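Box 3.1 — From sequence to structure: Ribosomal-protein-alanine N-acetyltransferase
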Amino acid sequence: MTFRLAPLRRTDLARCAELETILFPGDDPWRESAFLAELTAGHHYVGAYTDGGLVGYAGLSVRGRPGDAEASVHTIGVDPAWQGKGIGRALLEALLARADESAAPVYLEVRTDNAAAIGLYEAHGFTRIGFRRRYYWPSGADAYTMARPARVAEEAT
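Predicted structure (token representation):
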């Protein structure tokens, strides 16, 4: 059950797209080209790897200068066979550490019916600040917008 986190590699983008189709079957899963665009734009992406390869991924954008920056979680996904083993938590913590380097508040959207993810986010200081009706397409699932206040490195430890 060991895994390691490392920067997401371009060679893993097909696997990310494959996991998207498994994880988000009722919605419009990201294609390989979407992940490539994220990496090309310089966003912060992390992969979770086992001896068998990529089992999870997460991405974050940070806009602005430190102290005046804002971060947005773009995606977090974990292979269903590996869920419940701390990978999602580790991926989120890696994204939050990156946001904390810029003292940036962090925003995200999460399906209102995803209790496990909501619980994970709340455990990491996120609160619900908004509601987006029919946010996910084509399923029409609703989403909460959640936010975590900016933290500086000393607060994060």
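Summary of the box: The first strand starts at residue 4 and ends at 7.
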